[in-house]
Every structure is written in structure tokens, then in C-alpha cells.
Specification:
The chain has 281 residues and is mostly helical. The chain has two domains: 34-164; 168-277, Tetratricopeptide repeat domain (Serine Threonine Protein Phosphatase 5, Tetratricopeptide repeat), CATH 1.25.40.10. Helix content is 78%, strand content 0%. It contains nine helices and no strands. It has helices at 2-18, 34-99, 104-166, 170-183, 188-200, 204-217, 222-234, 238-251, 272-277. It is elongated, with a radius of gyration of 36 Å. The chain starts with a helix and ends with a helix. InterPro entries: TPR-like_helical_dom_sf (IPR011990), TPR_rpt (IPR019734), Ycf3 (IPR050498). Keywords: Membrane, Repeat, TPR repeat, Transmembrane, Transmembrane helix. The chain crosses the membrane at residues 85-104.
Length: 281
């Protein structure tokens, strides 16, 4: 794919540079390589779908082969059992002829009773084994289906994150984050990024609720406290904002460099407690 991308660039650039109706570089409004990136993303998604279909076909084939193998074993087991019963009958008849211990009727009744007990024992054992096989096959099928669903969801979420990175408007990003949350409702990262986008469009209380939900799901996620501090700052709740800022810095000290760059903290710049949090250069 990288070679194809390079070849296309070498093919397009000369014609763009030496065309009679050359367009000035300053007039370009959008990157020329954006369609190529989108094409790359579509090819990747197509490849993932093909891999999923191949995986599904392989799983179906393996399940069918396993069921066929179980049926063959059951038939062989039944055939062996019947053969053994006939061998027993033959041996018993031979003993009757040679030794003559009992009358024919007594031996016949005894054989019927013994055969019934043996068949019942074998049947119970066979049914028990079949039930165990069915339970194992059902469990494995559930695991395979769940794994396939997780793979599909993961690929979809990955594609949506890539799409969110390409979106320019905050409302478009919020729509993408909503799609991620519809697939994985407990995705705290998507909640946090959505809260940040909501702050950008002025939906402060909505962003505050999302940050609270993210913290309820993971109390060790620093960015959730950071976004909640931004919301508190916009609502002029400086005490709560400073408390969440301290918690975020405890969980991730790399956020110290962003204290003065965060525009939502501008109304805290005159606060003494906030100034103490700023690292000294």
C-alpha cells in the first residue's frame, strides 16, 4: 500500500507542477493526500471484513468436522457393542453344548437379563458421553461467537477512532464518539473525549455528567478528573476544580505541562492554590 501511495504521488505531482493552468500553493484549501488516506482506511476496513468472513467460514467448517467426528465415534462404539453382545451369546451357547449346566430356557432368561443390564449400562454411558460432548461443543461455540463479536466490535471501534481523528468540527466528533459508545457503552476514553468536545461547544453540564460517569467506571483515569475540573472551572466552582486538578496530577504528573495551556482554566490563573500547582521552570 505504501508503494502504491508513493507511485500515485510521483504520478500526480509532475502534472500538477508543470500544468499550464497551475494553481498557486496558497490557494489550496485542503490537503491533496486526504482522499488517499480515506481510500487507505476503506481498503483496511474491507480487508478486515474479508478476514472476518474467512474466520467465520473456518469456524463453521471446524464445528461441522467436530460433529461429524463425534457421529463416527458413536456409530463405531455402537457397532463394537453389538459385536461384543453376539460374541457373548456365541460363548454362552458353546458352554451350553459342552457343559449342559442348565436348561435352555434358564440360559435364555439369564442371557436376556444380562443383555438388558449390559445394554442399559452401555446406553447410559453412551448418553452421558454424548451429553458431555454437546455441552463442550455448545460452550466452545459460544466462546467462538463471542470472540468473533469482540473482534468485529474492536475493528469497528478502531475505525471510528481513526475517523474521529480526521473530523474537523466538534459536533462531527461528538457523533463519532456516540457511535463508539453505542458499541461499547463503558468506553471511558470515548466518554472523556466527548466531554472535551462538549466543552468546546459550550455544553458544560452535559460534559460534567459524562466526566462523572467516566470516574464512576474508573476512579484511576486521570483525564476524566481533568475534564471534570474543566467543567467545574467553567461553572466557576473553583474549589471543586482545584480538587480534581490535584487528583489528575497525582494520577498523571505529565499533565503539569498543560496547566497553563488549558484554556478552560483561564479563570483560575489568579487563584493562589492554582499557582502553587504550576511547575517551576
Amino acid at each position: 500500500m505504501s508503494k502504491l501511495f508513493t507511485a500515485i504521488l510521483f504520478f500526480i505531482v509532475p502534472f500538477t507542477l508543470f500544468s499550464e493552468d497551475t494553481v498557486q500553493v496558497d490557494s489550496i484549501q485542503q490537503p491533496l493526500y486526504r482522499p488517499l488516506i480515506e481510500r487507505y482506511i476503506l481498503d483496511e476496513i474491507k480487508s478486515l471484513r474479508q478476514e472476518n468472513q474467512s474466520l467465520k467460514a473456518q469456524v463453521t467448517k471446524q464445528i461441522s468436522e467436530a460433529k461429524l467426528e463425534s457421529s463416527d465415534r458413536a456409530i463405531n462404539y455402537t457397532t463394537s457393542t453389538v459385536n461384543n453382545i453376539f460374541y457373548i451369546i456365541t460363548a454362552a451357547a458353546s458352554l451350553l453344548v459342552l457343559l449342559g449346566w442348565r436348561s435352555l430356557n434358564d440360559i435364555k432368561k439369564s442371557l436376556k437379563i444380562d443383555m438388558a443390564k449390559k445394554i442399559q449400562t452401555l446406553t447410559s454411558d453412551y448418553e452421558s458421553r454424548l451429553q458431555q460432548i454437546e455441552v463442550k461443543m455448545t460452550e466452545r461455540s459460544k466462546v467462538i461467537i463471542e470472540t468473533q463479536k469482540n473482534i468485529t466490535d474492536t475493528n469497528s471501534i478502531h475505525s471510528l477512532w481513526m475517523r474521529a481523528g480526521l473530523e474537523k468540527g466538534d459536533e462531527d466528533k461528538i457523533s463519532v464518539y456516540d457511535e463508539i459508545l453505542s458499541i461499547k457503552p463503558d468506553d471511558i476514553e470515548a466518554m472523556t473525549y466527548k466531554a472535551d468536545a462538549l466543552l468546546e461547544i459550550g455544553e458544560v453540564r452535559w460534559a460534567l455528567n459524562l466526566a462523572n460517569n467516566a470516574i464512576d467506571l474508573d476512579k484511576e483515569y486521570a483525564l476524566a478528573y481533568w475534564q471534570r475540573a474543566c467543567a467545574y472551572s467553567q461553572l466557576d466552582k473553583q474549589t471543586e476544580a482545584l480538587k480534581d486538578i490535584k487528583k489528575a496530577l497525582e494520577l498523571s504528573d505529565t499533565l503539569e505541562d498543560e496547566l497553563l495551556n488549558e484554556k478552560h482554566f483561564e479563570n483560575l490563573h489568579d487563584n493562589k492554590s492554582f499557582k502553587l500547582l504550576i511547575p517551576k521552570s
